[in-house]
Design goal:
Elements (H helix, E strand, L loop, with lengths): L1 E2 L2 E2 L5 E3 L8 H9 L5 E2 L3 E2 H5 L3 H5 L10 E6 L3 H12 L5 E6 L4 H4 L11 H14 L4 E6 L9 H10 L4 E5 L14 H8 L7 E4 L5 H11 L3 E4 L9 H11 L8 H19 L1 H12 L10 H7 L5 H15 L3
């Protein structure tokens, strides 16, 4: 499978862009476990054109992350074009347009999946971004705004005609948010449409190796994008790849290995963001790496409130000593 001049192995696995999750340190560990494609957190076009520090920071990418895409969102065509041009200067492998985010603060002002209510404007923005940059442009979107407006089959054709290099489809409408089950039937319909020539990437509710294999086999997608299931579980890429290659499941990751991973992730976070921010932003991950351990509540509370980096590392050693395999 190719996206522009980017070549992938058969049945590649993509890390979904997620706000406050897919920062550089999290991307680092997902890459370590075999993610074939990474994306930044989604970046506000308004923030970029106003030189907002937080938005500019999200453009920082590293060569070891490649291939990597910068994802931008917004609802003003001129701002999206300018944001794409600025993003391209950061030298990503591609630029992805977010027409899929369902959260109110984005969708209700017409950005993200709010664009599903204005398909003509969505296409106009896409075409203008494609024309403004030299790198491949891709799109991530949903099935439609609600149950009565699932427009993805026709929209996919129009997006292809606008010049995008690949399309990612999340199998829910905007109004579903993340409730209910993702519907992959329309994703499969887009893929099977003889007019479609670009890669189709399926997204939604892939949480196990078996589900990933079934999605490839049943719906014929070119790649799978994994989002929420990576949270506290970045080794899911390794588990899925092993299953796709062998038909066998890997054993559950040991506590000792999870401690090693948490320390590596933590150190990368501090390295990239500095001690104060690096510690604070690792808390959401440290609270998830050890789900299911008995009598862990007190230790978890310490992990997510401690500010001293060395003490956090000592707490992780305590996890190994108390719950790890001897």
């Amino acid at each position: 499978m190719n996206i522009g001049n980017i070549s992938f192995r058969d049945k590649p696995l993509f890390l979904a862009p997620m706000e406050d999750v897919t920062d550089a340190s999290f991307r680092y560990v997902c890459k370590m476990y075999g993610a074939d494609m990474l994306y930044t957190e989604f970046v506000s076009s308004d923030g970029l054109i106003r030189d907002v520090a937080g938005s500019l920071k999200k453009l920082e990418i590293f060569d070891y992350e490649r291939p990597i895409g910068i994802q931008i969102y917004g609802h003003i065509p001129e701002a999206m074009v300018e944001a794409a041009i600025r993003s391209e200067k950061a030298n990503p492998d591609l630029i992805d347009i977010n027409f899929g985010c369902p959260v109110n603060k984005i969708a209700k002002r017409g950005a993200g999946s709010g664009m599903m209510r204005e398909p003509d404007k969505l296409i106009d923005i896409t075409r203008r971004v494609v024309d403004a940059v030299k790198c491949p442009v891709t799109v991530k979107t949903r099935l439609g705004w609600d149950e009565d407006s699932k427009i993805i089959v026709e929209l996919a054709e129009r997006l292809q005609d606008a010049g995008i290099a690949a399309l990612t489809i999340h199998g829910r409408t905007r109004c579903q948010l993340y409730k209910g089950e993702a519907d992959w039937t329309l994703i499969g319909e887009v893929k099977k449409n003889p007019r479609m020539k670009i890669p189709i990437i399926g997204n939604g509710d892939i949480t196990t190796p078996e589900q990933a294999a079934a999605a490839f086999d049943k719906y014929g997608v070119d790649a799978i994008m994994i989002g929420r299931a990576t949270y506290g579980h970045p080794w899911i890429f390794q588990e899925i790849r092993h299953y796709l290659d062998t038909g066998e499941k890997l054993p559950e990751m040991s506590v000792n290995d999870r401690v090693d991973l948490a320390k590596r992730h933590f150190n990368k976070s501090v390295e990239v963001k500095g001690e104060r921010v690096g510690v604070l932003e690792m808390r959401r991950h440290l609270s998830c790496y050890f789900k299911g351990l008995p009598n862990f509540k007190e230790t978890r509370l310490k992990l997510v409130t401690e500010n001293d980096p060395q003490e956090v590392l000592r707490l992780l050693d305590f996890v190994r000593e108390t719950w790890g395999e001897k």
